[in-house]
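Dear support,

I submitted the protein below through the web form. The confirmation email said the job was done, but the results page showed an empty box. After a refresh the structure appeared. I'm attaching both so you can tell me whether what I see now is the final result or a partial one.
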Amino acid sequence: MTNGKIVLGDYAKKVGVDFRFTTPLVKLVHENGKVTGAIAKAPTATSRSTPAGHCVCTGGYARNEDMLKALQPQTLNKYSLSIAIDGTTGDGIKSCLWAGARM
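What the results page shows now:
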């Protein structure tokens, strides 16, 4: 709580949202046309399946040169140094597209 206001993350935890950081998405589980779960790489390098939620929060694709060429070729023409954080390889975006999302 900040200045008497509930911060979104605090509210999400209060209603049962399970935040998992440093847990890269491997793939979404897809059954009968619906996403029913996710397989992620745990910090211990093992995989686990989790119930699917209604929101996928994923990083960008600044460290994926193929996606940059396809989606933002002008960026590669302008910048020679990427300061994007490690892990921004578009895996989450690609998983959502595989499951039927649109870019």
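Response: this is the final, complete result; the empty box was a page-load delay. The first helix runs from residue 8 to 14.
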